[in-house]
From TrEMBL:
Classification via InterPro entries: Acyl_Trfase/lysoPLipase (IPR016035), PNPLA_dom (IPR002641)
Organism: Punica granatum
CDD domains found in the cross-reference section: Pat17_isozyme_like
Source superkingdom: Eukaryota
Motif GXSXG in this chain: 68-72
Domain notes per entry: The nitrogen atoms of the two glycine residues in the GGXR motif define the oxyanion hole, and stabilize the oxyanion that forms during the nucleophilic attack by the catalytic serine during substrate cleavage.
Identification of the protein by name: Patatin
Molecular function in Gene Ontology: monoacylglycerol lipase activity; phospholipase activity
First-tier enzyme category under EC: hydrolase
Motif (GXGXXG): 30-35
Function (record text): Lipolytic acyl hydrolase (LAH).
Amino acid sequence: MEGTTRTTSQILQIRPPTYGNLITILSIDGGGVRGIIPATILSFLESQLQELDGEDVRLADYFDVVAGTSTGGLLTAMLTAPDKNNDNRPLFAAKDVRSFYLEHCPKIFPQKRGLWGSAQTLMKSLNGPKYDGKYLHRIVREKLGDTRLHSTLAHAIIPTFDIKRLQPVIFSTFEVTKGRYLDALLSDICIGTSAAPTYLPAHYFKNEDEGGRFQEFHLIDGGVAANNPALVAISQVTKQIIGQNPDFNLFSPTDYRRFLVISIGTGSSKIEQKYNAKMAAEWGTLGWLLHDGSVPLVDAFTQASGDMVDFHLSAVFQALHSEENYLRIQDDKLSGKETSVDNSSKKNLNNLVQIGEELLQKPVSRVNLETGLSEPTAKRTTNADALRKFAEFLSEERRLRESKSPQTKENIH
């Protein structure tokens, strides 16, 4: 396939899992400006890896798969796309992602102040997307350039949804060898997965397939299908194991003791309980699409899809006695403006930074399969401590693979 002649070991920054003990997965939820929360968490994780292995290491050096939806898809691209000036290093260090959000979110989601501004926003949202997306498109294309999916430095998985075909489209580096039409520009993929209904316009583009024909894509926010992409990532890896990909030939698809999964949410407002059956019973189309500055229908399906994944993975990892291999970091106690996906005021963005930093000091929580709420584990370990432990696992795994990899031995000789 043109443009994809490099082998996996040449593209990826981590040796294949077959030389190690674990399959490592990082998953990042969607959530608009709340992407600042996982950006803060990931900056901390990368700093812990740097303390162990040196300041030049990046997250892409440790994870077999990085998956992200919507704003998480943009984070995935930033952390795995090669730098134009150094193609074996990622475009962004994790510590720089938060600065990107703080600088550009106010221009992606420009805020109109006062009663007249609110009225203008309301009228615009009744007749089309709340934002035109032009600045988002420009900055994403500027940063990602002509980089295509196959070039990422870790396996990247970004869910989207095709509104014309009414089905999910999973852009995955595992799949590009099967069909060139999926080897799209990362910029197009990011714009597509971020096209949240009512907020940003759907994204159309076309890409050439193996026969010289063009495949059309009519994409909206991947959160419609998988706002929490952790299960999509595990499924993609499972397909490789079943398909006997040599990079995974020593693994069983049901051995969750050998999966190491970090899943990071963008926060939710469950504790606020801002909707109820009485008010929803009176909503028509407009009510479901606009209520007190939020979009209940979008809130419902994105929260539902994210929670269902966490329910499933929590149950499976517990059933297979591998719960220590699955870390979900999520704050379900957001309230007020901090729950917004598009409030880009300086005050709110800085508040989201603080929420991310405070989340690091909160105890590790797991979803209660009965109530649906996250509850602290018995050990009362903080998220920061858990990430330090995971950093040790990741560092040990990387060293093991490098010690056993024939490519490493060839480089030494």
